[in-house]
Design the sequence.
């Protein structure tokens, strides 16, 4: 006898799943699937495909994982699909050294690294981990032709990157047209009810819908999640831009980084990297708006919660306490000194603002490029000279976004806009913004 | 010890192979390959691929086969490639009833029918018959991706039919892009030096050149042959147009049909469906031009020769003798009565011309469609009435293009231009031209 699973009311499930989503194609299909699932007691099958590279996950990566978790929390089946087949194909021409084919062992090692991080979000016991070589590795040439026969070229060329490359006379190899079809075939093999992806995956998820129909299956729902904007509040969170929070970073570093978020930016973080219900988030926002909650406190609770998710509740509390202890004697953050470095054609201008006083000058010795922190501190007037700043750094008196920086030669990238929360000496905090 | 094969001088080979060819890409490559072959004593590998449909071959089909024979005659290896792989795939969507997948047995039966006819041209002993399922049937999905990675979409879309369908918003399924690549891969598997095809195959043959290079092989030479124009002197020879000479037709029927060719049209036939060297053809043409040979006699020798190829020398002689016996008492062919049926918007006009006398009238009872021969004979004045014409036909007094027509209800297609050589009664010959 199978137990008839109990699900929450469909409306409640829908509201939770809709939270933070960029697009659900189509929401009425998702409702219908949830209805059926509730009636039959059969969980939905939710697919998330990833490349088996060995990633160092940051919060940006967790957005789709968290949506998968939400489905899992509601009792549905989370399928973590490792795309090992194409990884083992590598660059099929064999001409690129940057995409060498991976061996079975490499794929397994990468998947292990990946999963160790993933299980900080998903439940280890309830996740169905699959490898697409299981079915794609068995495809014959005949099967491939059959698969390709189910999709039209004109449709494929509607995909944004194909369209723009074709228009720009940039090469597209024919095998690239096969990958969306193989990804779609994964949905057939998995009989997925819903596929998750970032917004940039939308086209591929829709191909899955069509190919499933062609293979006589009901079409999956495509649920896309937006890109998480990084700490700078401007661009996609990414390691190379330096505007990220890694999920294995130390609690204190995570806390400092998250506290550097602007007040407005914390709301998308509530939506995309927490498990709060939409009602809870709305209630918090209302409190802040009415003045009954301080944005700083709400942001601290956000940081504490995120850290608790990756390091446990105790670590969250400890990081918050530490942060508060250091800040106890500081100026209120609204009054924190802010230094804005403006990148101009003739160099960099420095504008200092502290409370209502402001001043500005050109820093002729600074250039738009990589500059030493020590040099920068001297130029903005936080040290009497670069060598004094170096001494200060060596002695442990310098922190960036909550992380101690002890190398006196360490650099800051002035090439791109960014925002840093910096401690100089024991208690002096300031914000350095590169514009 | 292997015998070192002796080949004819390269210039002589080239001249013979060039005969009738539409294009050789590239001729210097072919020369180089012939040079190497002459030096090493190793024959070239010449590929001709065909669909394993069960065809009723006509002279149009023999043009590429004959070029393959020419290579074979020169000592090279003729490869007759049966494209059974895609035939067994059929319409991969399974939605079309017109292209059901063929079974192994059907393919074999079709190939047998095909080969029986082909061996009237090629030497049975020296032909390498291959089936591409031998290697395509073993391709994995991975191999297919690798193959597709070697070719760019933009190049593929240069193919005329893809380009025009894309421009005209007509659907192209993605699997259609795979077929030229599979055909190219056949060249890799066969290590072909030369691939033959009709002019419409040019694109596919060129893909073969590129894919061989990508797989580390020397590129094959692409040799295309023109389309054979049918007996009407206007359109591609085809069974549905009725302007064809089937290679299994009776000798007398073939003779009559071939004699209905216009004098100018016989030269392409010498080029494309005989084994005469270019010098021999040029010498014949010079004789006709100078008046030292009668075009009628040259045409008879052409017909005799073609028939001898398919039915043996004796049958050729017999058909020629019979034709001459019948024509012994006739008017000279230049003076043969000619009836031209002109298809006009308001109906059909009949113009009779015999020597220098001509007359014309509208035939109000005839329409642009299928009409009974008996009715037509009455309208053009060759019988006093349709029923008299029917009686004549039943009694064996009516022949079309050398074939006796005994069914009084048999019809003539006035929808399209055509030319018929007709016998009415015992000795009266006339030409009926539909314009």
Sequence:
């Amino acid at each position: 006898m199978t137990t008839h699973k109990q699900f929450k009311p469909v409306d409640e499930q829908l509201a939770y799943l809709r939270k933070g989503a960029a697009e659900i194609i189509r929401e009425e299909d998702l409702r219908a699937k949830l209805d059926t699932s509730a009636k039959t007691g059969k969980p939905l099958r939710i697919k998330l495909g990833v490349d088996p590279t060995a990633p160092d996950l940051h919060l940006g990566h967790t957005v789709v994982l968290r949506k998968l978790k939400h489905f899992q929390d509601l009792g549905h089946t989370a399928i973590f699909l490792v795309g090992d087949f194409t990884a083992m194909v590598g660059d099929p021409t064999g001409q690129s050294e940057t995409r060498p084919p991976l061996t079975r062992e490499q794929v397994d090692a990468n998947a292990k690294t990946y999963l160790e991080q993933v299980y900080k979000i998903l439940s280890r016991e309830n996740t169905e981990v699959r490898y697409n070589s299981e079915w794609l590795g068995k495809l014959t040439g005949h099967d491939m032709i059959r698969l390709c026969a189910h999709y039209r070229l004109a449709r494929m060329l509607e995909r944004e990157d194909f369209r723009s490359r074709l228009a720009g006379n940039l090469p597209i190899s024919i095998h690239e047209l096969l990958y969306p079809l193989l990804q779609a075939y994964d949905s057939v093999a998995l009989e997925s009810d819903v596929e998750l992806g970032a917004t940039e995956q939308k086209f591929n998820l829709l191909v899955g819908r069509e190919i499933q129909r062609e293979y006589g299956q009901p079409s999956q729902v495509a649920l896309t999640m937006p890109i998480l904007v990084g700490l700078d509040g401007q661009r996609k969170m990414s390691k190379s831009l330096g505007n990220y929070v890694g999920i294995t970073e130390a609690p204190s570093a995570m806390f400092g980084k998250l506290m550097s978020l602007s007040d407005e930016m914390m709301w998308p973080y509530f939506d995309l990297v927490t498990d709060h219900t939409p009602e809870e988030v709305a209630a918090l926002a209302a409190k802040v708006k009415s003045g009954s909650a301080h944005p700083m406190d709400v942001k601290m609770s956000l940081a504490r919660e995120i850290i608790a998710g990756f390091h446990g509740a105790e670590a969250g509390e400890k990081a918050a306490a530490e942060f508060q202890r250091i800040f106890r004697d500081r100026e209120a953050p609204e009054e924190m000194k802010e230094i804005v470095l403006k990148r101009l054609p003739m160099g960099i201008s420095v504008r200092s603002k502290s409370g209502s006083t402001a001043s500005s000058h050109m820093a002729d010795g600074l250039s738009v490029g990589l500059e030493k922190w020590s040099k920068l501190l001297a130029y903005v007037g936080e040290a009497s000279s670069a060598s004094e700043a170096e001494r200060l750094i060596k002695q442990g008196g310098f922190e960036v976004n909550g992380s101690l920086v002890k190398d006196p030669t360490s650099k800051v990238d002035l090439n791109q806009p960014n925002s840093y929360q910096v401690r100089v000496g024991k208690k002096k905090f300031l914000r350095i913004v590169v514009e």
User: Anything to note?
Assistant: The CA atoms of residues 245 and 254 of chain A lie 6 Å apart. The mean pLDDT of chain A is 88. Residues 174-190 of chain A form the longest helix (17 residues).
